Amino acid sequence: MTETLIVEPRHSPHSFLRFPLCTDLDRLEADIAILGLPYGDPYGIDEVTNDQTNAPTAVRRQSLRLSYGLDHWDFDLGGPLFDGRKVRVVDCGDVPADPGDMTAHYRRAEAAARKILGRGALPVVIGGDHGVPIPVFRALEVLGPVTLVHVDAHLDWRDERGGVREGYSSPIRRASELAHIGEIFQIGLRGQGSARTREVEDALAYGAQLVTAYEVHTAGMAAVLARIPDGGRTYLTIDADGLDPAVMPAVAGPVAGGLLFHQVRELIHGLVTKGRLVGMDIVEITPKRDLNGISSLTAGQLILNYIGAATRAGYFD
Ligand SMILES: [Mn+2]
């Protein structure tokens, strides 16, 4: 592959938390690699640059409100982010798209994720809509079997919509077709989305474990975590609308009754310590709908919880 993979953050004046930029993935030396994937597989021409494409920039802009310095105490973590250890976090910018070839950005995204994983770093992907993790799921092949954990109000098992197969209604269906994806846990389901009875039946036939938001509220996230096998690799894909709209107002499909921040935080810490959480994404933030930047801030706080938890679990020692 000779294509240029990466450009600098498109519109943000700075990287995520001002971490160093790495614009050449062949020289990547990092424990964690932040990667913006603005572009999905659109259902219509107006969705080529939907508001979700603005989210990597919005999250980077808001990230400076998350931290007053890496030496400051983070009560989410019980100490400074890096816990006094040597941890290398870089921001790899955004994968660009090519208006003359609307399949190019998924190819580049997969190649970028393969390089990040191949060089031993954990990818932290900022979408983009929920189509963008599909090439990342493919790239997980380099690691071998992976359990997929999915936070979302919606099932995302549509085979296609209007002939489009890799859009934001289909990521979990596409994941289920990959040989290296094993068990799938879908957490936070509620209300109505694009799923009909046939999609639910297909998910259940696959063996996907469907966990409603109400089950989490009643039984607690610890009970959900207990169902996920210990010791294996997991990848976490978070649709922002899996969280409650009070926490994540900037989403296209808000549904009441969603997961609360502390529940998703508990999920991240639990997955990190149960086995190896090999990466995560946060997608479907629509910054124009945001209030006080709270959705982008909350996304950034989830990312810091992943970095801090992985650090304390000895991932980078
Ligand atoms: Mn989704």
Descriptive notes:
There is one protein chain. The chain is α/β, with parallel strands linked by helices and 317 residues long. The chain has a single domain (16-312), classed as Ureohydrolase domain (Arginase, Chain A). 30% of the residues lie in helices and 16% in strands. The chain is built from nine helices and eight strands. The protein has an eight-stranded parallel sheet with strand order 2-1-3-8-7-4-5-6, with helices on both faces. β4, α4 and β5 (181-189) form a beta-alpha-beta unit. α2 (104-118) packs across α3. The protein is globular, with a radius of gyration of 18 Å. Bound molecules: manganese (II) ion. Manganese (II) ion (MN) binds at residues 130, 152, 154, 156, 168, 239, 284. The site of manganese (II) ion has 7 residues, from loops.
Q: What fraction of residues sit in β-strands?
A: 15-25%
| Annotation, overall tally of beta strands | 8
Ligand set: manganese (II) ion
Low-confidence stretches: 1-5
Tally of separate domains: 1
Number of helices: 9
Q: What is the H/E string?
A: EHEHEHEHEHEHHEHEH
CATH topology: Arginase, Chain A
Largest sheet: 8 strands, parallel
What's the CATH C level?
A: Alpha Beta
* Helix content, binned percent: 25-40%
Radius of gyration: 18 Å
Which descriptor suits the 3D outline? Answer: globular
Q: Based on the structure given, which CATH architecture is correct?
A: 3-Layer(aba) Sandwich
